[in-house]
Amino acid sequence: MTARQRRMLLVGLMVIGVGTAAAFALNAFQENLLYFYSPSDVSAGKAPADRTFRVGGMVTEGSFQRPAGSMEATFILTDFAHNVKVRYSGVLPDLFREGQGIVARGKLAPGGDFVAEEVLAKHDENYMPPDVADTLKKQHQKEAGGQ
Amino acid sequence: MNLSEFLHMGGYAPYVWSCYGLTAIVLVGMEWAGRRQLQLAQEKARRRAQMGAQMAVAENPS
Amino acid sequence: MWLWFYQLASPPHAYRLLGLWRPWLLWPAIALMVIGVYGGLVMAPADYQQKDAFRIIYVHVPSASLSLMVYVMMAVAAAIGLIWRMKLAHAVAASCAPLGAWFTVLALVTGSIWGKPMWGTWWEWDPRLTSELILLFLYLGYMALRASFDDIQRADRASAILAIVGVVNVPIVKYSVEWWNSLHQGPSISVTSKSAIAGSMVWPLLVLLLAFVLYFGAILCNRVRGEILLRERNTAWLAESSLKS
């Protein structure tokens, strides 16, 4: 083996070694790396009961309630399997609306409601002009109506 | 579309224009720094070469 | 077959070629930038959800793409330099670092400015954002390590190892949005599948991505030439060509 081949092998082993170590480390800390829990996790009791965590899902259509003149909002967060009721008082981001994905940070209240300190809007990777979005929505409704 | 509407960016003007402005500043700065680094290196090399030529003459004054 | 490769790697040859290539990268880059920015700010329609705020994508995505591409280039150049003991490759790696670091800063800052109105936060410890921040620290660490050596050759070898080891972070940044729950959305443009952006909105993005790549190439030419001068300061060819000019 020439010196150059030895160096090549060494560089290759270094990348594989560090890559494997990183993969193991990330796997081991998977739990801690979890940025948010789903409503199913919360229902199954996987989320911490006594400390702050994040829960992410979609705001159920028609579930958003905020009495006039009040900052206190409630809505249902769903992952289409389980629901979590969220209570939040504060400013909501521009993209917040029913049917939108959001991530809320807060704690579980004794009654099972999630009391949020912060609500962030999550958007998807789709970008389109408003008229295209309208057409898509109408098509979708037609398909759903035809069934 | 009129100009003030364009500059207004549907109410997101501070966000949109600060992003474009910062990007422009960084891109121009990168180019400027690259040019300057090369210029300095070229000047240094020229001075070194002149010094070397003078020394060769001093050692060999024929 | 490898003759062109060794010719290219010879410092005087590379110094001359890089000077010739540079204008062919710089001017098309600037032209494409003008077209891309006009397309992104004026011609592209506003997004159905994000309205005009979505236009930040045209500076955010090219910066973020470049931050990863430049790192891969730096690591590959460092590996070539280490394995083939090639000075030119080390010069390329050293030149990539400050440029990549600036693209990373741009990606982080424009992302943050975009995140405030859309997500509702300047910063979150989300996997994508965190791994991109680690990328910045890798670039800074690489530059700090180089600066701590007086001898260029020792700096080249030590920093090359850091660059190569740090490459594992690149797939983590890229796939973080798929591997973990994250606030950041998935990729909108993809080589293998249909892009998730409407055609009228995607073309300025592709134009600007190409413009950024060419612009980076143009600056890299200058930086590598500077690095060659630094490394070759005691050679005859440099003395000759410096006296001529």
UniProtKB/TrEMBL annotation, chain A:
Keyword 4Fe-4S included in the entry's annotation: no
Binding of heme, residues: H123, Y127
Q: Which GO terms describe its biological process?
A: cytochrome complex assembly; protein-heme linkage
Keyword Acetylation present in the record's keywords: the answer is no
Q: Residue ranges, Extracellular compartment?
A: 29-147
Q: Which UniProt keywords apply?
A: Cell inner membrane, Cell membrane, Cytochrome c-type biogenesis, Heme, Iron, Membrane, Metal-binding, Signal-anchor, Transmembrane, Transmembrane helix
| Functional note | Heme chaperone required for the biogenesis of c-type cytochromes. Transiently binds heme delivered by CcmC and transfers the heme to apo-cytochromes in a process facilitated by CcmF and CcmH.
**Family note:** Belongs to the CcmE/CycJ family.
State what protein this is by name: Cytochrome c-type biogenesis protein CcmE
Automatic annotation (TrEMBL), chain C:
The UniProt entry lists membrane topology as: Multi-pass membrane protein
Could you name the Gene Ontology cellular component terms for this entry?
plasma membrane
**Gene assigned in the entry:** ccmC
Q: Which GO terms describe its biological process?
A: cytochrome complex assembly
Its function, per the record, reads: Required for the export of heme to the periplasm for the biogenesis of c-type cytochromes.
Pfam families per record: Cytochrom_C_asm
Can you tell me where the transmembrane regions are?
24-44, 64-84, 91-115, 127-145, 157-177, 197-221
Q: What is this protein called?
A: Heme exporter protein C
**GO-annotated molecular function:** heme binding; heme transmembrane transporter activity
Q: Where in the cell is it found?
A: Cell inner membrane; Membrane
What positions does the domain Cytochrome c assembly protein occupy? Answer: 29-184
Q: Which domain of life is it from?
A: Bacteria
Q: Which UniProt keywords apply?
A: Cell inner membrane, Cell membrane, Cytochrome c-type biogenesis, Membrane, Transmembrane, Transmembrane helix, Transport
Q: Which InterPro entries match?
A: Cyt_c_assembly, Cyt_c_biogenesis_CcmC, Cyt_c_biogenesis_CcsA/CcmC
Keyword Lipid biosynthesis recorded = no
The entry's family comment says:
Belongs to the CcmC/CycZ/HelC family.
